[in-house]
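Ticket 4471: requesting a sanity check on a complex prediction with pyridoxal-5'-phosphate. Repro inputs:
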Amino acid sequence: MNKRAYNFNAGPAALPLEVLERAQAEFVDFRESGMSIMEMSHRGAIYESVHKEAQERLLALLGNPDGYKVLFLQGGASTQFAMIPMNFLGQGQQANYVMTGSWADKAYKEAKLIGETHIAASSEADNYMSLPKLTDISLSDNPAYLHITSNETIGGTQFKQFPDTGSVPLICDMSSDILSRPFDMKQFAMVYAGAQKNLGPSGVTVVIAKEDMITSSPKHLPTMLRYSTHTSNDSLYNTPPSFGVYMINEVLKWIEERGGLEGIRDLNREKAALLYDMIDGSEGFYRGCVDAGNRSDMNVTFRLESEELEKAFIKASEQEGFVGLKGHRSVGGLRASIYNAVPLESCKALVDFMGHFKRTHG
Ligand SMILES: *Cc1c(COP(=O)(O)O)cnc(C)c1O
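Returned structure tokens:
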């Protein structure tokens, strides 16, 4: 096989090599059916067992919290930005948002199209390079829910703890750090994630929600945009993204094999520490973008002294087989996305490269 790239793409992103190889081995003839999983009915026994396995594995990794259900939807996390207020924001209520960066802002703007909103906290004044303190979150008078973004993929911030909202439903966009560490599902009414960062290929959106939140949705909504449609049909109302669900199931097995969420967290911490130690120990050659306490273990954002030097860094890195280190076009700089599937070896190779680049350009 050709050498695999050192893949630091932000999304779609690296998938575990073991999963890709397993998928390849059973691609043409899935479970002795004489066809691939993409070619069979989603109402048949084989696909249904994969669908159910993926749901059960996901809940098991979260400790099988009582009363929660898993949905596999389409339209990306971006469609959830709209479905959440459409389904949960009632008359006389306010949709509450914690503003932490580009993704939170996109979610908030969709809610504004639907009804009344309230900004419960914001770090915009700091250019989103830090996170608001949990104690600074202030809800509106009649909140329908509080929405947070656990990891801001572009800025590179990540909440280490989550707010306690009591009886107000807490909803979280976990697109870029779901299953990267243990978390208490029972703190949340709903979490959701586009699969293409930590769970599998693009085309599937995972929703984990309290069943009572998603069983009775407003009847005036189009059928596909009602959570209740998908809940009562077990995400099989229409044709599901079957290959993506299969891949998620394989990624979940891979997480189990690595010691579940604790094992994955330890590995992720080790990877992130390698990079942040290199940045912090570089005497200002590399400059971390985010406050130390709010740094993401998934998206490591940093800068060099000038944009020219950053361009030279990207060019040299590409020549050495590194992919995806350019920061998001909206903020510039550099970013290494080190999701679950990015191997420790890739991070070690990047640290070596950064050391070498500093010696030759410092
Ligand atoms: C990538 C990303 C999204 C957008 O996901 P799509 O599936 O492309 O709609 C939303 N939120 C966060 C935090 C992301 O990282």
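Notes from triage: Residues 11, 76-78, 103, 149, 153, 173, 175-176, 194, 197 surround pyridoxal-5'-phosphate (CB under 6 Å). Leaving this open until the requester confirms.
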